[in-house]
Amino acid sequence: MKSNTKISILIPDGESHVLYYVVNCFAKSGGVKLYVMSDKKNNYMRYSRHIQKFLYHTENNKESRWIKVIDENVEKYNIDLVFPIFETAIRSLIKNRDKLKNRDKLYALPSLQNFDAACDKEFLYKHLLNTNLSYPLGSVAKPGEIPNLNNLKYPIIAKPVNGSGGGVGIKVLKNYNEVLQYCERNPFECNIIFQEYINGYDVCSNVLCENGEILACTMQKGIAYENGEETYQVAFDFIDNKDLYENTLSLMKSLNWMGVANIDWRYDIDSNEFRVIEINPRYWYNTDASAIVGVNFPYLSCINFLKQDIPTQDINLITFYNLKGFIKKFKKNPLIIFKIRFLQKQTPLFYAFSDPMPMIHKFLWRTKNIVFGSN
Questions:
Q1: DSSP classification of residue 169
Q2: Which CATH number applies to 7-106?
Q3: Whether the Cβ atoms of residue 46 and residue 15 lie closer than 8 Å to each other
Q4: CA–CA gap between residue 68 and residue 79 (Å, rounded)
Q5: Taking Cα atoms as reference points, which of 20, 39, 33 lies closest to residue 85?
Q6: Alpha carbon of 171 to those of 42, 174, 353, 361: distances in Å?
Q7: In 23-58, which positions are buried (b, 16+ CB within 10 angstroms) versus exposed (e)?
Q8: How many CB atoms sit inside 10 A of residue 18's CB?
Q9: Tens digits of per-residue pLDDT, 1-39?
Q10: Which helix (H) or strand (E) holds 205?
Q11: What is the DSSP letter of 315?
């Protein structure tokens, strides 16, 4: 920030798993005081030294009351910026922004229609039908319904249209019998989208936008995954690809996007084009990796909110390993632990070293649950 005065930020959905990555980004930028609301009393992030005040509440199931608690905390702690980080809170604040007493302190968010088009894979598929962007052909079925797949080629990938990511419910199906088995065993209450599986590889683009224009962007290509390509990337290359950038810009313009988003693409090696897979309309797993290479999305969101110029970003195109990716690499080459520059520039370990208490409490909590069982 240009001023020496710290900006006070209220994160109203601190129960989200992406809080850790967002806090790391603000710790790297400095210039902020973080206040975090959460409906999880034992949230391990309450022990972070980077959080000014952890505010436990019990109102997440009552939207109107939750809005009131936000208003109360904004006034009590003289908050400058209300900063939701995950889908549920973002959508609630889009719906209820006119009910906030200090709605001018909420950073710019997309319209509800465009947010839902991005968040719901079925709505996104219908939106893409009216664009020039490439995407896998598909068909949508209701729970328990057998989809019409006459125009699709196997293999097919099945996905719930709603979900918080991580590959939950995603499965590649090789024939019609596997489709039938998937439908019979499907535990989800939402619709399922079935799309042709693209022969190629995964890439992501991460953006901060205003009225559909990209203010900041990073791109990454996965090289290792938590448990197969349908799950989280645990190691990836930061890349610079003009075609991917132009496709991302076209997609964001079509949604007149406001704020951040993480877009999953599949590069089709048969047709040599990027195909839109899905949009995560919020902060994402490994947001702090972009901060390490030079693009600090939470900080830049604050800069934009304050109507300050977004500085030019010089991106360091490195291979990044998150904690799980680092463990995989360490098992193959234990001597990597002595490469300090690698640990500092290509892993999040220095985030953990500078703020160890959340990870310690998380480890103790998990150990307790394993030994004694969770209540």
A1: T
A2: 3.40.50.720
A3: no
A4: 14
A5: 20
A6: 34, 10, 37, 34
A7: bbbbbbbeebbbbbbbbeeebbbbbbebbeebbebe
A8: 21
A9: 544 678 999 999 999 999 999 999 999 999 999 999 999
A10: strand 200-210
A11: -
The pLDDT assigned to 2 comes to 46
User: What are the C-alpha distances in Å from 273 to residues 200, 241, 246, 276, 312?
Assistant: 10, 12, 12, 10, 28
For 116-149, letters b (16+ CB in 10 Å) and e give bbbbbbbbbbebbeeeebbbbebbbbeeeeebeb
Give me 198's structure tokens: 């693209």
More confident residue, 226 or 102: 102
- Residue 110's nearest CA partner among 235, 252, 226 is 252
Instruction: Tell me which residue of 275, 372, 358 sits closest to 34, measured CA to CA.
Output: 358
Tell me the three state secondary structure of residue 197.
coil
- How far apart CA 198 and CA 71 sit, in angstroms, is 46
Instruction: Describe the crossing of helices 87-96 and 112-119 by its angle, rounded to 10 degrees.
Output: 160
The CATH number of domain 137-196, selected from 3.30.1490.20, 3.90.1570.10, 3.40.50.10490, 3.40.50.620:
3.30.1490.20
CATH class of 200-321: alpha beta
